[in-house]
Amino acid sequence: MDKDINISVKVWRQRGPKEKGQFETYQLKNINQGTSFLEMLDILNEQLINEGKEPIVFDHDCREGICGMCSLYVNGHAHGPATGATTCQLYMRRFHDGETITIEPWRSAGFPIIRDLMVDRYAYDKIIQAGGFVSVNTGGVPDANSIAIPRDDAEMAMDAAACIGCGACAAACKNGSAMLFVSAKVSQLALLPQGKIEASRRAKAMVAKMDELGFGNCTNTRACEMECPKNISVSNIARMNREFIWAKLKD
Amino acid sequence: MTEINSKIPQGPLAEKWSNYKAHQKLVNPANKRRLDVIVVGTGLAGASAAASLAEMGFNVLNFCIQDSPRRAHSIAAQGGINAAKNYQNDGDSVYRLFYDTIKGGDYRAREANVYRLAEVSNSIIDQCVAQGVPFAREYGGLLDNRSFGGAQVSRTFYARGQTGQQLLLGAYSALSRQIGLGKVKMYTRHEMLDVVKIDGRARGIIARNLITGKVERFAAHAVVVATGGYVNTFFLSTNAMASNGSAAWQCYKKGAYFANPCMVQIHPTCVPVHGDYQSKLTLMSESLRNDGRIWVPKKLEDAKALQAGTKKGKDIPEADRDYYLERRYPAFGNLVPRDVASRAAKERCDAGFGVNNTGLAVFLDFSDAINRLGKEVVKAKYGNLFDMYEEITNDDPYETPMMIYPALHYSMGGLWVDYELMTSIPGLFAIGEANFSDHGANRLGASALMQGLADGYFVLPYTIQNYLSDQIQVPRFSTDLPEFAEAEKAINARIAKLMGIQGKESVDSIHKKLGHIMWEHIGMARDAKGLEEAIQMLKDLKKEFWTNVHIPGKGDDLNVELEKALRLADFIEIGTLMAHDALDRAESCGGHFRTEHQTEEGEALRHDDKFMYVSCWEYQGEDKDPVMLKEDLNYEFVVPQTRNYKK
Amino acid sequence: MWLLNSSIGKKLIMSISGIFLILFLLFHMSMNVAAVFSGAAYDAICAFLGANWYAVAATMVLAAGFIIHIIYAFILTLQNRKARGNDRYAINARPKGVEWASQNMLVLGIIVILFLVLHFTQFWYNMMFAELMGHHEVMLGDGTVASPQSGATFINYYFKGNILITVLYLIWYVALWFHLTHGFWSAIHTLGWNNTIWMSRWECISKIFATVVCAIFAIITIIFYLNGVGGC
Fold first, then answer.
1. CATH class of B267-407
2. Using a CB-CB distance cutoff of 8 angstroms, which residues of chain B are in contact with residue A130?
């Protein structure tokens, strides 16, 4: 059964991108273990507001692990200690009475801090804008069943497409590399006949944009894969390397 | 009294849309470049519309409140998207999809709109596949389908339990392409706070930059609102935390009619409420009803034992289980439409048969499916949902039956639009869940994705041209015009007023009170007395909010509490309008259930003679009761019947 | 040039230079195996690889491989540190499934280089370098005079009964082992020659390969310590 626990929460507070941040520690009493992690932060914020302090700013939206808006580095793990789950899917059952929980924002040059735990992840959108699409306009497309796609290919594409763009991969990577995110999109579209046509162009454009935005170089530590809330595989990175090297050799 | 003109084209049902397209006015490519369109929202409707308009050559300004357009709440839709492809050769057709949707909506939707929706549904699937959406496929390589509530054919296309995500990412990729090409200017973390009218036409918006806190002005030739629904009025719902009705509400306050506000959908399969601190409710996909069987105990003492925790679901023998949906609705069984399933669950729980500690839950049991198909098959189909459920509740659904309860999910009501998706303000369009849409009084599963994308890809990009064709001579507007200045001033005054209250209560605590009033009085079952009480209670709550809310921080800075307060101020008013509408509609239909109007068996009782209309509410000013106009629904092609899911 | 500008290009250079160094390691290992059985055979190889144009050319290529690998390691690490941003995580746990070696390749590489310096002063400096300088005799610390082509003499001199050097070499192999366990499959992965099925296979092959190579080097070193060249 879920119990009530008392915890300390050590949170990174930072007013703005240029200002210096520091940790603040707060005490929380009688938190039911059936509470979600973000609800625990809601309770903390309610407490701070009642004390006349400013609440902690953090990103969150759907709270069911699909929108990719929530982030947070909890006790040294992107999206906290649970595997295959986002921070919003984390429950207080994972923590014990008396524990100090350290909460930090994503720290990566590609994701500047906006305030407290909120970071700017628009860089990921820019990478998609550089080529993460199939160049078709609305209308004038063939019937959906006109091209049969092997089920395994469709499933593999779906595995890659499950990426929610939360940024955990770059945040967890010691190199601040966005390769897992980029490769997931490159892979998804390269695996499908619809996307294959411009696969080379896409791989080159997306990698170039990723490099331009200052993300680091992949050294295959696999930390991204291990911390990814959607278990996106680094085999996508191998596929992207293949696509990219092949595209460049063709040129 | 103003005449409501829905501009439905003449001709036979199946030809209306083709006729419209054949005769509508278009804008030539050179002129498209000179026209700006604001699209607010980046969900399925907003992103697809913004992308499609930009592809055609219009300049698009696109807004979203999240940090990225990819995060709009359409992403959370799980089950699937309907289309009348008839790939399964099970007798589906455009007409059947149209008919199921009209019937599912309890005959409160426009025939012409719904037919158009069914007609373009097939193009949506084609479009998404072309974009690289990885729909589920069979071993032969062709697309797979599954069945969904309210239909007797398999017409739902899906991508695991993440169909909404994949469709949205498809639309987002199309949108991203246009942003990259410079045809769409994207404004993230911007919240629309007002629509600006010049000479009676919508010509721009006022939006708050959520990072800097600055109120900014944007002008365009037309404004499209795709800001989703308003069920977060109830505080607890399956909507995302930031989903809100404010953009639509501001349009209403500027003169756009708000249609059928009382029609909201309560989804039957959600994880039950577990505590006061709860921030939102989690939906478990409706697809679970394909293989899961819903039941409560037959005996009251078993229910009592379950509530006390002395018994578990699996302790109750088969003979003592009441599969009430299969019992009451033999033809559709566990696959009855959502409103029916929700109400049936409430009925059993109200009678004392609830199965969790609060008495507000029923079982969704997979033991039959596991025995029949094997655990591996069930795992492959629903594994991620089961894992999600276990993480939330700490119960293993492979071992003990899941517990579910209905929760607020979708609003069928919204901004009134004509056949062209234009609101009653010229130049202001509403698409997706934000409009009162094609779902009548109840939406069928897997139809929201269909409608959002239909509006955005295939309807609005046509109909908006009919409006814009005579705007080509109109030069771009300056945001220095007095109308913009005035609107901005009003917004700043509103923010200053909120910041000046400095009361005692947090925004969330007042929102919870609102949610409580809504759930108790304007929830799954409503009656005249309760609604009248609710109107009074909401009046008091509004006063409480405006005198006692506490917002820390500053107005011209990043301020999440202020964002929430601005939304809550509107939610309270939306709730009030819902109560007015629910009170007016003295019948039961779809998601709107008035306890005074039910059959002897407890089914919804419509009064087609009196309520065969769309209620269109017109704003009259602060603290004045709104006025209702009626758009009569003339069923030319379908004969309204009592919905029957029994046989 | 994409090889130099793009992140994947730079990684490709690391990968290919790494694979090249692995091949060299295999070659060097076979030489050592020869020394275990026969000092004369080893000396013959040493003579063959002395100051001949082909040996010098091969050495230059090899050196280039090393230098590129090392320079790129530093360039990439510096870039990666920059990409990490200014603030570091206060708590950063290594996720389950992430090898320690993979996150410490630079450190391991530096250890490997330091030992390489030792190795060079002992062998290459006295052998090929001495020959290039035109010396036909080299005087060792204890006064022994040897031909720069007689590798066996050097081995005996440095290893036989010398516990310190032996232990240092064994430490070197441990660092090398760590470096190889990640480096091998990572190089393959960077080339794109990987997928979900081969992922664990390559990692396994990588471990086996590193273990075999390092074990053989270590055994040979111990034999040298105990019995000197031709000890078997």
1. alpha beta
2. 180
